[in-house]
């Protein structure tokens, strides 16, 4: 059963960046989603992806709920916030070894840590997945159909 959804896309501008948005999925039949994090990461330099409701509140006006306790991602409360996790990723074309930091209150077993590690790996892969396609055709490799 999926528990979260990570979306990533490239934002073009003066500095290209990758926007990562992470939602928790509800087990309710209506399929409600709760926005946990929305971060812009520099495509060239990399950056930090985090779930931290205190930081989100300082950076934007919309309060974002976070899990109350580890393992129970369906029990959400806007009050039980604060730091949940963060990971640093490198920019495009750089060998990344994401460093993941977790809040102890959200990790009670190995599976909890594995969930956040998988999320960090997905964010890291999203940087490369959002890289624009380069189209170079060599003269000797063109084939007529």
The main pleated sheet reads as: 3 strands, antiparallel
Please tally the helical runs, counting DSSP H or I stretches of 4 or more residues: 2
State Rg.
18 Å
Strand content: 35-45%
Secondary-structure element series = EEEEHEEEEH
- Point out poorly predicted stretches: 58-79
Briefly note the structural class of the backbone: alpha+beta
Q: How many distinct domains?
A: 1
Task: Characterize the overall form.
Answer: globular
Total beta strands:
8
Roughly what is the average pLDDT, rounded to an integer?
76
Q: Percent helix among the residues?
A: 10-25%
Pfam families: DUF1005
InterPro entries: DUF1005
Protein architecture, described:
The chain has 145 residues and is an alpha+beta fold. It has one domain. The protein has two helices and eight strands. It has helices spanning 53-59, 110-129, and strands spanning 4-11, 17-25, 33-42, 47-52, 66-69, 72-77, 83-89, 99-102. The protein has a three-stranded antiparallel beta sheet with strand order 1-2-3, with helices on one face. A three-stranded antiparallel beta sheet has the order 4-7-8. A two-stranded antiparallel sheet has the order 5-6. The radius of gyration is 18 Å and the shape is globular.
How are the SSEs ordered, and which strands pair?
Layout: E1 4-11, E2 17-25, E3 33-42, E4 47-52, H1 53-59, E5 66-69, E6 72-77, E7 83-89, E8 99-102, H2 110-129
Antiparallel strand pairs: 1-2, 2-3, 4-7, 5-6, 7-8
């Amino acid at each position: 059963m999926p528990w979260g959804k990570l979306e990533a896309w490239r934002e073009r501008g003066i500095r290209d960046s990758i926007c990562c948005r992470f939602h928790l999925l509800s087990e309710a039949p209506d399929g409600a989603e709760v926005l946990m994090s929305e971060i812009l990461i520099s495509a060239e330099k990399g950056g930090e992806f985090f779930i931290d409701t205190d930081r989100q509140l300082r950076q934007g006006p919309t309060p974002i709920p976070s899990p109350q306790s580890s393992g129970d991602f369906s029990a959400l409360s806007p009050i039980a916030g604060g730091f949940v996790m963060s990971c640093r990723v490198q920019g495009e074309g750089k060998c990344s070894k994401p460093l993941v930091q977790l809040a102890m209150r959200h990790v009670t077993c190995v599976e909890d840590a594995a969930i956040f590690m998988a999320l960090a790996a997905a964010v890291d892969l999203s940087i490369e997945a959002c890289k624009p396609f380069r189209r170079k055709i060599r003269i000797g490799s063109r084939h007529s159909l």
